[in-house]
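User: quick one, fold this
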Amino acid sequence: MFRGRSIHSLDNKGRLAIPARFRDVLKGYNDERLMVTNRDRCLVAYPYDGWREIEQQFAVLSITQPAVLRYQRVFISGAMECACDKQGRILIPQELRMRAGLEGDPDSQEEANNQVVLVGMLNSFEIWSKPRWDQEDAKNLEEFDSLSQVMADKGM
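Assistant:
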């Protein structure tokens, strides 16, 4: 399972080092490929086998439902395979970087412009631009009491 969060930097080619603890999860799948796609204001990365399960779930949904089609057009069509290189990095395609706000100023030498936060989400992990994550985290902390009640109502 993917747990925890950590701050990393994209290099100027769009490569992201995957933390060792996340790579260990991928090794459990005997496949270090990730499928990366769009999610709201960030990207989400799934182990390849986990992604195949998602595709199978979508394959049985009715394509006559407009909401299903619209969701697929963003989520499924945005998916790209990203294999780990020998240094444990993935290359995040430019289109995905742009959609998630991961594109810092390419001429800037400031590391903060390319900082990303990896957020473990059990069966996947999210990739956030640091400024977007800071906003999301603040919002989540502000609403944590009410979110805790929702989770308690679900038996958590």
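User: anything notable?
Assistant: Strands lie at 5-9, 15-17, 33-39, 42-47, 80-83, 89-91, 115-120, 125-129.
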